Amino acid sequence: MLWATRSLRIALRQRLNFSRTMASDTILESPGPVEIAIREKLVTLLQPSKLIITNESQLHRHHAAMRSQGGGNGETHFAVQVISDTFKGKVCVLSNLGCICFIPSQNTVQRHRLIYSALSEEFSQGLHALSLNTKTLEEAQRYQADRGRE
């Protein structure tokens, strides 16, 4: 019976596209200040078509660095899945300079650097780790298609 309940919870969350979870598959009632800041900054910066933020802090509270902080503040480790066409290459017009430039497609390292840079304030205030999964919409669709063939 427990299996059916957990499976139902997961299926409902996927169907309703919940974007807040804890690593234990528990749906959280309200986000903490760090998660709110992460969400606001990434939505503004990337305008994602999908953004899932999972608080994994409870899985790491036994690590030495977290033990020294009394387990941390409960918002030290997050997994972030983001799908955004901001990662695509694009042409931009700098009207004030009267020129056209091409911004190349970003590779994974560049995408991660962009996100880490945007969240530098959160890292300086106790955010310890991010696990990032960054894709364009096209890459996400191709990934899903490839998984369907397996």
Which helices and strands appear, and what pairs or packs with what?
Blueprint lengths: L1 H15 L3 E3 L10 H14 L3 E6 L8 H4 L9 E7 L6 E5 L4 E5 L4 H11 L1 H5 L4 E7 L1 H13 L1
Parallel strand pairs: 1-2, 3-6
Antiparallel strand pairs: 2-3, 4-5
Name the structural class: alpha/beta
* Strand/helix succession: HEHEHEEEHHEH
Head-to-tail CA distance between termini? 30 Å
Q: What portion of residues belong to β-strands?
A: 15-25%
Mean pLDDT across residues = 76
**Alpha-carbon Rg, integer:** 18 Å
Low-confidence stretches: 11-19, 21-27
Number of E-state strands: 6
Q: What is the overall silhouette?
A: globular
Helix content: 40-55%
Protein described:
41% of the residues lie in helices and 22% in strands. With 150 residues, it is α/β, with parallel strands linked by helices. Strands 1-2-3-6 form a 4-stranded mixed β-sheet. Strands 4-5 form a two-stranded antiparallel ribbon. Strand 4 and strand 5 form a beta hairpin. The longest helix is centred in the first third of the chain and has 15 residues, at 2-16. Residues 11-19 and 21-27 have low confidence and may be disordered.
Provide the descriptors you would attach to this structure in a database record.
4-stranded mixed beta sheet; 150 residues; 6 helices; 22% strand; alpha/beta; 6 strands; two-stranded antiparallel sheet
